[in-house]
Amino acid sequence: MDYIETTEETKKQYIVVKIGSEQYGIDISYIDNIVRMQKITRVPTSQFYFKGVINLRGEVIPVMSIRRKMGLEDDVYTGASRIIILKFEQKDALGVVVDEVREVINLGTSNIDKVSHSTQEGKEMFINGIGKNGEELVSLFDISTFTDEHEGI
User: Fold this and answer.
1) Residue 152's pLDDT is what?
2) What is the rounded (10 degree) CA torsion for 110, 84, 135, 21?
3) How far apart are the first and last CA of the chain?
């Protein structure tokens, strides 16, 4: 009797979003909701990358600009712009503004190249891997870099 070894690769789902002309992946396990752009109420004296807060079904949720956090040009809202609501075990929800939500992809560990974190003084690393989805490359967000400071809004 022949023994056939099957190694089932662990796959994770990512939502692919566009920010500017680049594609990024967000681990779907962090995503609670995706909502259309709505009125964001500015909060005085908050960090420059926080746009303000929204009221989502009675819950006040801080909203952050990924573009501002990464040092890119400011957000330009279009019909495709969305707020992705991220949920965490030990922290409150956080909304992040993206230019467009593209698709959901499955990536196995063999399709992800880890990025080495060569820390630069004063610079955060927002990406913890590069996913290969067919011929396309998707930068995978390290969600913890976005959530570290959102307590203080």
Assistant:
1) 46
2) -140
3) 64
